[in-house]
Amino acid sequence: MGSTATRSSGRRQRSATALAPVPPTRFDQRLKEILAHATDVFCQKGYEGASMRDLSRASGMSLAGLYYYFESKERLLFLIQKHTFSTIVRRLKARLEGVDDAEERVRIFILNHLEYFLANQQAMKVLSHEAEALKNGFASELAAIKREYYRICVGLLDDLKRERELQFSTRIAVLSLFGMMNWIYTWHNPRVDADAEAIAREMGDIFLQGVMTGGRGRGR
């Protein structure tokens, strides 16, 4: 019996170990730092105006070392954008888990988007201004993540339409919502404007009242 208990305890320990989060490696931490420095440089100088030497000086990494890990500044821009969109999608999915109300799910989408944008305004400026800079495989991989994010929003609005028996163009509604949210970094002033939660609540009211009131009118 003692050996059985020991084996059972060992299995539980191995199971707990397998489920434990993997701590970031030294390289992962360094990569995060380099991407933050690269974001600052691209934000200040623009993608075209920035050089690998600028990125080397900002990150504190030698030019040779930078080229060893990142063969071009295009790869750095790709990694910045991939990290940003992947993080937004991952956080959104976690927040939507277990929430069934269609309107609340749309509001979660808005809050998640605005929170990240306001907390990472330099990254958002780079993403917005350098959206067309990536080419070939980099552009294709990033486009796939963007399409997933867009499809999530489409699904949320379609669910709202079914639940409330509304009639409106999902495409127009989704693109209008992104138009409301995406440029917040250009005007938000923390000294006079509310925080992300309050803005998300008010923006959600404006958007949802619009689609629900208009949608009911067309339904009749």
What's a quick, concise take on this entry?
With 220 residues, the protein is mainly α. Helix content is 79%, strand content 0%.
Poorly predicted runs of 5 or more residues: 1-22
Question: Structural class, from helix and strand content?
Answer: mainly alpha
What is the overall shape? elongated
Counted by DSSP, the helix tally is: 11
Note the main sheet.
Answer: none
How does this model look, in words?
- The chain is mostly helical and 220 residues long.
- It has 2 domains: 1-71, Orthogonal Bundle (Arc Repressor Mutant, subunit A), CATH 1.10.10; 73-220, Tetracycline Repressor, domain 2 (Orthogonal Bundle), CATH 1.10.357.10.
- Helices cover 79% and strands 0% of the residues.
- The protein has 11 helices and no strands.
- It has helices at 2-19, 26-45, 52-59, 63-69, 73-96, 102-119, 121-129, 136-164, 170-182, 184-187, 196-219.
- The longest helix has 29 residues, at 136-164.
- It is elongated, with a radius of gyration of 22 Å.
- The relative contact order is 0.10.
- Residues 1-22 have low confidence and may be disordered.
